[in-house]
Amino acid sequence: MARFDRRAVVLGLGAVAIGGASLAAVGQQPLYQDPDAMYAALRGQSGQRLRIGGGTITVVFADGAPGLSRDLVLAWIRTAANAVTAYFGKFPVAEYGLLVIAEPGDRVGHGTTFGYAGTATRIHVGVGAGPEAFARDWVLVHEMVHTALPDMPRRALWLQEGNATYVEPIARALIGQLTPADVWSESVQGMAKGNPRPGDKGMDGTQAWGRLYWGGALFWLLAEIAIYRDTQGAGSLRDALRRINRASGGNTTTWSPEQLMTVGDGAIGATSLARLYERFATQLVQTDLERLFRELGITATSDGLVAFDDTAPLAPLRRRITRP
Question: Which residues pair with 49 in a beta bridge?
C-alpha cells in the first residue's frame, strides 16, 4: 500500500496534516478550538457509544456533522480502535470521547487529544472523504495511541509524539491494514528527520518538528532494540508500554518521564528505558541509521520501497515487531 508523506506541526497533543482543508474555510461551522467547548459538545450533544477492546468510545458528530457519511466514519473509528487494542492488548482507556467535526475536503484533517477533563479527541474529517481516504488515514490511530500513556511535562513532548509516531503504523500492521514493508519504508524515510542538527542539544525541551516526531520515534525504536538485547529476546517494548498503560490508566494522569521509564523497565526486568532516556534527554545522540537498519535487515530500494534480509542479526526482532 502506498504511504503518503507524514507532514505535521504540533498543536496541543496531536497532529495537523499540511495540505488539508484550511480551517478558515469552515467559516459557518464551530471549530471547537477551545478544549472546554469540545468537552461541552461531548457532554451536551447526542452521541453513539461503541464498545471495543473493553473500552467505551462515545462518538459525537459535532452539530450533526452535515455531509459526512456516518457509516464510513463509524467503520473507520472501529478499525482504528481495533488497531490500538491489538497493540496494547485492550483499548487503552475505559471511557473515550471523540468529537468528529465536518469540514470541506476529501481527507481526514487534524486531530488533537486531551486528558485534563477525561480522555477525548477532537478530529476534523472532510465531507468528501471516501473509503480510500479512511483506509490510508494515520491520524486517528496516532491520537488513540496518545491516550495510552500518562501526560508528561512539556519538556518531554518528544516522548509522547514519538511514541504515537512509532506505534501507529505497527498497530495498523497488526490488524493487516499495513504490511511490514509499509511500516519500515516509512521508518527509513522518516527517522532521518529525527537526528540532531548543528546546535541541537538533548531531546528534552526540543521544539523542532522533525525531532519531536521522528527523533522521538527513533528513541522508541532504539528502546525496542535495547530491550530485546538486554532480555535476550524475552521482553519487548510492547510489554513495557502495556505495563505503563495499566499502571497509569492513560492520559488523564500526569507522570514524570523518569517514572514512566521506571514502570516500563519493571515489566521487562531490566533498566533499558531508564538508561536510554538519560542519554537522549540531556545529551546529543547521533544515530547511524544506515547501520541500524542494516542490522534489522532493512534496505531501501531505488523505487522508494524496502527489501528485507532475514539473515541480519536483528531480523528476528524486526519480524516480531509487526507480528500479531
Answer: 58
Asked if 163 contacts 203 with a C-beta cutoff of 8 angstroms, the reply is no
Q: What is the pLDDT of residue 14?
A: 56
In terms of DSSP H, where are the helices of 175-299? 180-190, 209-210, 216-230, 237-248, 257-268, 272-282, 289-296
Dmax (CA) for the chain in angstroms is 58
DSSP-derived pairing of the beta strands 108-114 and 95-103: unpaired
Q: What are the residues facing 83 on neighbouring strands?
A: none
Residue 30 is predicted with a pLDDT of 58
Burial of 55: CB neighbours in 10 Å, binned 0-12, 13-18, 19+ = buried
Low-confidence residues of the chain, pLDDT below 50? 1-12, 15-29
Q: Looking at this protein, which amino acid is placed at residue 318?
A: R
- Please, how many CA atoms are within 13 Å of residue 314, restricted to the half-sphere of its CB? 18
pLDDT at 17 (0 to 100): 34
Size (the chain), residues: 324
Residue 84: partners with Cβ closer than 8 Å, 6 or more residues away: 53, 91, 92, 141, 144, 145, 147, 148, 171
* Rg of the Cα atoms in the chain: 19
- 3-class SS at 118? strand
Give the whole-angstrom CA distance, residue 146 versus residue 142.
Answer: 7
pLDDT of 39 reads 98
DSSP assignments along 13-68, one per residue = SEEEETTS--GGG-TTS----SHHHHHHHHHHS--EEEEETTEEEEEEEGGG-TT-
Q: Pairing state of beta strands 298-300 and 306-308? A: antiparallel
CB-based contact 80:92 (threshold 8 Å): no
Strands 120-126 and 95-103: parallel
Q: Exposure string (b/e) for 265-288, b if CB count within 10 Å is 16 or more? A: bebbebebbeebbeebbeeebebe
Angle, to 10 degrees, between the axis of helix 257-268 and the axis of helix 272-282?
150
d(CA 171, CA 73): 19
